[in-house]
Design goal:
With 196 residues, the chain is mainly alpha-helical. Helices cover 69% and strands 0% of the residues. The protein has one domain.
């Protein structure tokens, strides 16, 4: 027991406080648990930016009726598919692709880092039930090419976290992410122009 922490209060109905026989053992258990749990907790440098971007997106969605006349701002605030289609009808292809790529890619480094951090903590975790399974999946010879292809085909948070977890290089993932996003937006703009 830590002497600076004070005296243990007796439980209700007891006249004396409980005795801890081995206080150093309790401290070691507490230190062990805090260390194990801290490895799996996302830190504020990942959670806060994603929360802010979610708040901006929710604000854009709520303000959509008022921003209907300014589709570029609506797309910049909330890049959801209906708003992208609305913006594709009202603006040129270059601003559509530039603003859309910037807004869709702004959260991607945080998803990649989250996957990288979770991949590191789970890679050597044979003591955890999912540890061996994840290590086999991440170490599979097709895991890296498949996650790279997934980032190009659909560059979303889940695929970027997977790319980080299997250990793809950040520069490669950034190139795949930007090219996949540009292809996605160009295809969406072309499809909207055909259907309009």
């Amino acid at each position: 027991m830590n002497p600076a922490a004070g005296v243990l209060a007796p439980a209700p109905g007891r006249l004396i406080a409980p005795r801890i026989r081995r206080a150093e053992t309790a401290d070691r258990i507490r230190t062990f648990l805090v260390g194990r749990l801290a490895a799996h907790r996302p830190t504020l440098d990942l959670v806060v930016p994603l929360a802010v971007l979610s708040l901006v997106s929710a604000t854009g969605t709520l303000a959509a009726p008022a921003l209907r006349g300014n589709p570029l701002l609506l797309m910049a605030l909330s890049p959801r598919l209906p708003f992208l289609v609305l913006a594709a009808r009202g603006i040129g292809p270059v601003p559509f692709v530039v603003v859309g790529t910037a807004r869709l890619c702004v959260a991607d480094p945080f998803h990649f880092r989250l996957g990288r951090r979770l991949g590191r903590s789970a890679g050597g975790g044979a003591a955890r039930p999912g540890g061996r399974w994840f290590a086999r999946l991440a170490g599979h010879r097709l895991a890296r090419p498949a996650s790279g292809a997934a980032v190009v085909v659909r560059p979303n948070g889940r695929n970027l976290a997977l790319a980080g977890a299997v250990g793809l290089r950040p520069g490669l993932v950034a190139a795949l992410d930007v090219s996949g996003t540009v292809l996605y937006l160009a295809g969406l703009y072309a499809a909207t122009a055909l259907l309009h």
